[in-house]
Structures are given as C-alpha cells and as structure tokens.
Amino acid sequence: VAERIVEDLRGKGNAMTERDLARYWAAERAPMTGTYRGHTIYGSAPATTGGATLVSKLQLLDRQEASTGAYATDADRLHAMIEAWKLTPETSGRIADPGLWPVRRAAFEHPDTARTRWQCFDPQRAITSVVDDEAASGAPAPCAPGLRVRRSPAPSSPTGARRQGRSAWTATADRSSAVAPHVPRLDGSREGKGTTGFTVADGDGNMVAVTQTLGTWGGSFYMTPGLGFLYNDKLGSYRSSPDAYNARLPFARNATSISPTLVFEGAGADQTPLLAAGAGGNAWITSAVYQIVEGVVHRGLGPQRALEQPRFLVGETPDGDGPDSFLVQYEDGLAPSVVEGLRDRGHRLQPISLRGELRMGFAAAVKILGNGAVAAGGDPRRAGRGGAIE
C-alpha cells in the first residue's frame, strides 16, 4: 500500500516518501476522562478536541441542581445545557498533538475547573457575547467580579440598558479574565456530511465507538487507483505558522472535533459499561454526542430515543463592530414554551429545520442492558440503523 501511495503521489509532484509512511504509527493515548451524575465518561484523546470539550460540558452541567425534565420541554434544563457549552474552556493553545506540543488536559478534566466556572452561570440570564481567551496557555480564567461577560438585560429593565452586576457587561482591560467558549463560527460554511460514526457492543459488555473523517464532504476527492480509499483535506485544520501551537508540521496529528465516547456507570473499580456513542456532521458532532449522553445518563433513555431528541448547536456570529454574539441553532421539536423561555433569558435563537424535520448531526449509539442484551439506535437524519448479528 505504501509503495503504491508513493508511486502515485510522487508522480504528481507530491514530496511523500516511503520513509515518511514508515515513520507513522497508530498512537495509543489515554482518553479524556470526567464524571457526570455518578458515571465515568471517556472521550477521544488529544490531538482531537471533541473529547476535551465533551468532558468539560458534562462536568459543568453536573453542577446544576438535578432535574428530571427533558430539555426539549424544560427551558431551565436547556438553558443550563447551553450555558455549560459556553463556559467550556477554549481548546486553542491547550489541545494539539501531544507528541509535538504540551497538552493542558486539566483545564477540561479537573472538577475544580467546572466548580469555578459554573459560578458564572445565572439561571435567569444568558451569556450573550463571545470574548476571546488570550490566556489559553494557562488555566481557564475563573468567574470573578471583573469577568468580561455580557448577559442579556434583565426583563424588568424597560430600556434594555446594561445594568451593573452579573447581568452587565463589566469593563476590564484584562482579556485573560474572559469566558473562553468552544464554539464554531455559524457562517453557513463547512456543513458537509463526510464523517462516519458507528458503534458496536457485544453480549459480554465490550463496546467500541469509532468516528472517521476525511474532512468536509469527501475529503480531497482523490483516490490512488486500485487502493479504494479517499484522502482527507484536513491541512486547513492546522495553524499556518510553523512556530504556532498546533502548526502544520511534518508528522503532526490533526486536532479534529470528532468525539467517539464511552460511558460507564460508577467510578474506579466499580465501573460497568453502559453506552458507546459517536457522530458525524462537522460542528454538530459534539452537539449530538453531548445530547445523547445527557439523555441516556440523565433520564435513562434508550439509544433510539436519545438519538431522536431535537438537536441544538451553540455558535457565534459577528455582531457589527462589537464582540461576537452567541447564536443557538435548533431543530424542530422544542416545545414552544421552551423557545419562549430561552428568548426571555436573552438567547438568540435560529430554527434550522421545518416542522417535524430532523436535520443535523449523524450519530450512532449502543446501550448495554445487561444479561447479554444490547440496544442499538439508528439516526433518522441519515441512513443510519441499528441491527444485531448472532
């Protein structure tokens, strides 16, 4: 295979050599690990960022008072899930190929991060503006009185003026004190369907979650004759400067957002397998896995019901000359009272599907039921399905 790759690519001007391919191997690395409602979460390891942000979201959400409501019908619950997303530390400067750069996992895994940053959560106000985190090389900034966070004006303010206190945009010259959300730019680009996710489990409780991506749509659209696989188009996921963190260097492993995930009940030696989940769909990958894990662990859903929950995505859009603003895109399926409740808190919302339609993210999930039984789910957003082989 290596010989045919080199013969083909070098014939077209590529610099690849057989020695280059011989020096590449599949690295086995420790997964990102966290806890959520008494369960242990294992997410994808660096250089991918999906595991880091998923663990952080769930540990932040775990700080909310427990409720039994489904986020599609409970505005309080969905507000907390959205705010946990916004409070997740930025991965830039923290997550890259561990073989080439220092990786700062504690910003996402340590419970003190979630405990500190959840102080920024207000059950009645949405964080409404994005502020860059220029302290990415260190620990995520804590929530403090000088924190640069803009929240929606209180409903009781007839003028909508910025108020002092936690609902205000509080001025500070120190941008390192900012909330640094891990959110995509919602500009309509990169909404391809080129990623594949599948999950497998057996009667003995073994689980596998696989996510494989070529990049947007079909990768580079190029295939070496006779080999049967496409090449990816992920060079744009690196920094261009060779001196930058996560730079485009030889042998650097790509920092994608894929998020294959395993969930176990309990902790330590008492862990028992529960769920394997993964998804394709670009920015909607982490959205899908986050919402599946929440549904299965928080409310005991089966994999099919967890997959069919209406999805939402927290992103950012340019806001004139001011700071960028958060925007929550959502599929049809949220109760009207939930949409109204989110708007009352100051969330900017954008529906992205018609009534009854499911559009975004393409996930797969299997749940261990015990006694040799496994339940599987297929995502109706694409031609996914669950099945059994004896």
Strand content: 15-25%
Average pLDDT across residues?
83
Strand order of the largest sheet: 1-2-5-6-10-11
**3D shape:** globular
Query: What distance separates the N and C termini?
Result: 33 Å
Approximate helicity band:
10-25%
Radius of gyration: 21 Å
Main beta sheet strand tally, sense and closure: 6 strands, antiparallel
Count, helices: 9
Structural class, by secondary structure, is alpha+beta
User: In terms of per-residue confidence, which ranges show pLDDT below 50 for 5 or more consecutive residues?
Assistant: 132-137, 144-150, 155-181, 188-193
Give a short summary of the structure.
With 390 residues, the chain is an alpha+beta fold. The protein has helices at 2-10, 18-22, 50-61, 75-87, 106-109, 111-117, 284-299, 303-307, 336-344, and strands at residues 32-36, 39-43, 195-201, 207-213, 261-265, 272-280, 312-317, 325-330, 349-351, 362-370, 373-378.
Characteristic terms for this protein:
21% helix; alpha+beta; 390 residues; globular; six-stranded antiparallel beta sheet; three-stranded mixed beta sheet
Report on this model:
The chain is an alpha+beta fold and 390 residues long. The chain is built from nine helices and eleven strands. Strands 1-2-5-6-10-11 form a six-stranded antiparallel β-sheet. A three-stranded mixed β-sheet has the order 7-8-9. A two-stranded antiparallel ribbon has the order 3-4. A hairpin with a 7-residue loop joins strand 7 and strand 8. Helix 3 crosses helix 4 and helix 4 packs across helix 9. It is globular.
